[in-house]
Amino acid sequence: MIPSLCWIARGVAAEEPHVLKLDSDEINHLIERTKQNLEIVENTNGDESDEEKKEDGSTHEKADIDDDDEFNMAEYDNEEEMDGQRIFGAGLSGVTYYANPSDDPYITLPQLAEEEEGYEIKPTDNLICCAKLDGDMSNIEIHLWNADEQDFYVHHDILIDKFPLCVEWLSFDAGDQDEIEGDRTPGNYIALGCMSPQIEIWDIDIIDTSEPVAVLGERLKHSKKKPKIGKKGHSNAVMSLSWNKHSQNIIASGSADCSILLWDLETGSAKECLNHHNDKVQTLCWHLAESTTLLSGGYDNTCQVTDCRTKNSKSWTVDGEVEHLIWDVSSPFSFLAGTASGNVVCIDIRQEKPLYTIAAHDNEVSGLSMTKLIPGLLATCSADKTVKVWQISDNKPSCVTSRAFPEAGSLHCLSFCPDYATMLAVGALEGGLLMWDIASNKEFRDAFNHHVENGS
């Protein structure tokens, strides 16, 4: 299942991502931590092991020499010492680990440089970042897509130990300032919201990373009392994220605790708490031009536009839970809301009533996407397993074409490529990431022929 995805524009990712290699100190730290974990496991079974050893006539101090010990394993520890660190524990007794593989006498194959070369990213490559759940395994999956060469594959992934709900790309380095040399430089990061209250920031330019560069929100201890909402973070799942491209140190998060927090990525703390919603906050979107205007929607059937300087908010009630919101790229005063009843509602923030309502799908509208490259083009997806393409220019919406994905189950999200106007990425309940170039559809070409001569 892919509940959320986002594109990464061409030229953003490092052409040669850093393949993480632990130094000797880091390896020794991991070894020590592993030994401690193994000791805890062994100690839990200590009584049983002692009894077994006593029955066999053995002690902790000295082992009896077995006449059938063909390989003299009883004297193994007395053999010539080798450089490296030996681990003792369940299944690992006597195993020696080397910080530098070339020091290990049992490794004779050379390290292959081709492994690192396989991660090269070209300036013409786009990346697609997906939050993915597959059985009991969760990960952030990064796909590579190249329009010119028609390449499409999983470039790398990051294993996570939480149920992922939403992802948001950002370029701001949220790492600890004490660990940053000089000024912060733009990078390639993903903010991850999960069923837990914390928000993790991951560096996508690092291969085989095991830890986020930053975690927003304190880890909550087990308690029957409801934690306080505020500067310490959320008290429930993080359902939505939106990075402010104009005030780049700010990211907004919406939660199942009914609150919206505005985080300062420089300090890693929440600066403001907005409580305009009465139920879970499902979707967020900063205005495309106004850095202080935030759009939000929730399970309380309301869409809210908030001026974050004053916390003043204007609200509109729609016909169901708000599943997804986007600003209209062709109009700075309008936004579109997908609802649980299957409708798409277009609202002008200067007016009290909607401009129009589209009966778009037979089930909830889970995804909306527009592109600046083709004005008036809207794509929607739904739990009814279909993607639909709309022409909404002049506030006269019409369905241009649609496509069903019956094998994919419910469709959860979709997004247009920022560099190739007609390519849609779709996340679904079943299977992997779906791709659809809508320019392959004749009805679309007829409706937008003057926009798609080169597909972008």
What structural class do you assign from the helix and strand content?
mainly beta
Distance between the termini: 29 Å
Radius of gyration: 27 Å
Sheet with the most strands? 4 strands, antiparallel
- Taken from the alpha-carbon principal axes, the silhouette is globular
Helix content: under 10%
Strand order of the largest sheet: 1-5-6-7
What does this structure look like?
- The chain is built from 4 helices and 31 strands.
- The strands form 9 sheets. The protein has a 4-stranded antiparallel beta sheet, with no helix packed on it. Strands 8-9-10-12 form a 4-stranded antiparallel beta sheet, with no helix packed on it. Strands 13-14-15-16 form a 4-stranded antiparallel beta sheet, with no helix packed on it.
- The two termini are 29 Å apart.
- It has helices spanning 24-44, 46-55, 114-117, 442-447; strands at residues 4-8, 18-19, 85-87, 95-97, 125-134, 137-146, 151-160, 164-170, 189-194, 199-203, 206-207, 214-216, 238-243, 250-255, 260-264, 269-274, 281-286, 293-298, 302-307, 312-317, 322-327, 334-339, 343-348, 356-359, 365-370, 377-382, 386-391, 398-404, 411-416, 423-428, 434-437.
- The radius of gyration is 27 Å and the shape is globular.
- 9% of the residues lie in helices and 39% in strands.
